[in-house]
């Protein structure tokens, strides 16, 4: 029955390009009087100068500062006064801005996003203000957060050439050293219509929406096309060992990370499924055996960190008193070896398929989720139709493939083992 439910969820959309290269995707859904206007820019941390990291995330904040027609500090007030909410987020690959409004404010949402693209005001006062905001965010989310540097330390050790080696939030020293002209040049290079996709989803009239899009976005000049360098990493052929001391923790963490292919590949999707089998929820293999039955770990998990160029498959665990991170790694290896040698049972396979069917239905159950998926599939996968078709890829993955992909990527000589430990002075207290 689940397959029937899923197919009933087919997402209808229309897509086209403006003359200036802006890609537009429209999705009509009249079930609620709500509209989302969103723009995704193909710029993330990987597009930064290694001496100026943190720029893409900085712009996530900076482009709310104001425009020629929206005074400084007024952006959020306008949105709230019109019954809306808005947000933005940045990854290594892209930056995403969106507003959710009652549908009678569609024109306002389109005008605001066109203003952000056409007339942003990038001045010293805005840069100085957001510099403080970003520093505070880093203190809260990274510096003072237990295990807050986990991803940063993994990336730093997994990537030698690729810009994935630095964090999305970047270096505060780099941001402090940057000149206003450098911020303005970054804006001119990346925040251009031909490096963006506009998604409008919800209770909209298609013809009226197209007129407004042409009116507000049509006049924005095309930018110089963005050219990207290709960075390749040599395969990992022997275990990389690294240590990181975290002053915010009292318990060490076992971390093992394997480099995996681009999220656009079939193998990356098989690794998603492997991650679900091993560690998604309390009935998953690692959790059930190592945490529940053996009581060796307080916590145990694994996740597939998928990205546009490469991914990482990260396994982690916190040992119970009397056990060590080495023991946890050995136990995790046993579970991976089992996957490499034996096919998962038909029952486990059916359960896996049900999980992915239900995730598919859920991801397409809100207009915000649909808008974000449409933008992502177009920009990072190069195929908007995947919003309806990706589930077929997951459905077609076989038990044999799960075994083969585990064999291909999850071997001890292909990984980083990171000793993530309490800082020495902390541990001695």
Automatic annotation (TrEMBL):
Chain ranges of the Peptidase M16 C-terminal domain: 178-355
Coiled-coil boundaries: 322-349
Keywords for this protein: Coiled coil, Hydrolase, Metalloprotease, Protease, Zinc
Limits of the Peptidase M16 N-terminal domain: 24-164
Keyword Coiled coil among UniProt keywords: yes
Top-level taxon in the UniProt lineage: Bacteria
Protein family according to the UniProt entry: Belongs to the peptidase M16 family.
Keyword Protease: yes
Name of the protein in question: Peptidase M16
Organism: Flavobacterium suaedae
A Pfam family recorded for this sequence: Peptidase_M16_C
PANTHER family registered for this protein in UniProt: NARDILYSIN, NON-CATALYTIC MEMBER OF PEPTIDASE SUBFAMILY M16B-RELATED
């Amino acid at each position: 029955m689940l397959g029937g439910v899923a197919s009933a969820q087919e997402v209808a959309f229309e897509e086209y390009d403006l003359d200036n290269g802006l890609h537009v995707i429209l999705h009509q859904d009249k079930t609620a009087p709500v509209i989302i206007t969103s723009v995704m820019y193909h710029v993330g941390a990987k597009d930064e100068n290694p001496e100026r990291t943190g720029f893409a995330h900085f712009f996530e904040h900076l482009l709310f500062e104001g425009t020629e027609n929206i005074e400084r500090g007024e952006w959020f007030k306008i949105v709230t006064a019109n019954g809306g909410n808005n947000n933005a987020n940045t990854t290594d690959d892209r930056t995403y801005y969106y507003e959710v409004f009652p549908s009678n404010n569609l024109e306002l949402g389109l005008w605001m996003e066109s203003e952000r693209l056409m007339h942003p005001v990038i001045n010293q006062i805005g840069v100085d203000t957001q510099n403080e905001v970003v520093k505070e965010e880093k203190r809260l989310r990274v510096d003072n957060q237990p295990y807050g540097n986990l991803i940063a330390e993994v990336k730093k050790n997994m990537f030698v050439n690729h810009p994935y080696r630095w964090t999305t939030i970047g270096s505060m020293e780099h941001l402090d050293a940057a000149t206003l002209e450098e911020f303005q040049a970054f804006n001119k290079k990346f925040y251009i219509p031909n490096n963006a996709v506009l998604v409008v989803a919800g209770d909209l009239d298609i013809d009226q929406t197209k007129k407004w899009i042409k009116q507000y976005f049509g006049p924005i000049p095309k930018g110089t096309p963005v050219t990207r360098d290709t960075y390749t990493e040599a395969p990992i052929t022997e275990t990389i060992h690294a240590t990181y001391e975290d002053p915010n923790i009292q318990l060490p963490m076992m971390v093992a990370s394997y480099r995996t292919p681009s999220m656009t590949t079939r193998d990356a999707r098989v690794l998603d499924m492997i991650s679900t089998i091993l560690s998604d929820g309390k009935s998953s293999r690692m959790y059930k055996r190592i945490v529940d039955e053996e009581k060796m770990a307080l916590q145990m998990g694994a996740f597939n960190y998928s990205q546009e160029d490469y991914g990482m498959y990260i396994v982690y665990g916190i040992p119970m008193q009397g056990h060590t991170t080495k023991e946890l790694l050995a136990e995790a290896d046993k579970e991976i070896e089992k996957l490499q040698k034996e096919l998962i049972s038909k029952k486990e396979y059916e359960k896996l398929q049900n999980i992915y069917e239900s995730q598919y239905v859920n991801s397409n159950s809100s207009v915000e989720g649909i808008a974000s998926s449409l933008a992502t599939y177009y920009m990072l996968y190069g195929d908007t139709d995947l919003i309806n078709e990706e589930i077929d890829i997951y459905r077609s993955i076989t038990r044999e493939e799960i075994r083969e992909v585990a064999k291909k990527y999850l071997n001890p000589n292909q990984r980083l083992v990171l000793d993530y430990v309490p800082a020495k002075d902390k541990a001695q207290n």
